[in-house]
Amino acid sequence: MDGSGNNSTKEKLGVVAEKLVFDLLYKDKGIKSLKWVSKNASKINANHEGYNPEGDDKFGYDLEYLDEEGNKILVEVKGRAGNENSFIVTKNELKVAFSNKENYRLIFVNNVFDNVNRSFRNLQNPFLIEDGQDFMNNEKFIAINNNYEISFK
Questions:
Q1: What's the mean pLDDT when you consider all of the chain?
Q2: pTM
């Protein structure tokens, strides 16, 4: 989840984006054992298929499922209220993406609250970077680091 505005709006954006992606994947006949694992899964109606009172943000991803070959696929959902083309990613989310390579997906939802202009982009694992490139210099995205933590020796 990523958005602009106050914390309440950001929280709602995250819940709605994840629910939209869960509902989209739930309809896919090739997906088995779809589970919503993030904390947002505990914030929705208990009658919804994705409801998970044990949801937790410690995993570094939001949803998981088994594909047609039985591979466990981890899905991170990012949402924006408008049509922006960027999102924030945490250190833990990157760790999961790097360690799960082809079994990681990032689904980006634009215009989360707009039923007419909403769009979904399956970015696969955008952090699979070609040889000779790195996180800060690659052909897929621009990484903008706005903050650095400095630790004294």
A1: 92
A2: 0.89
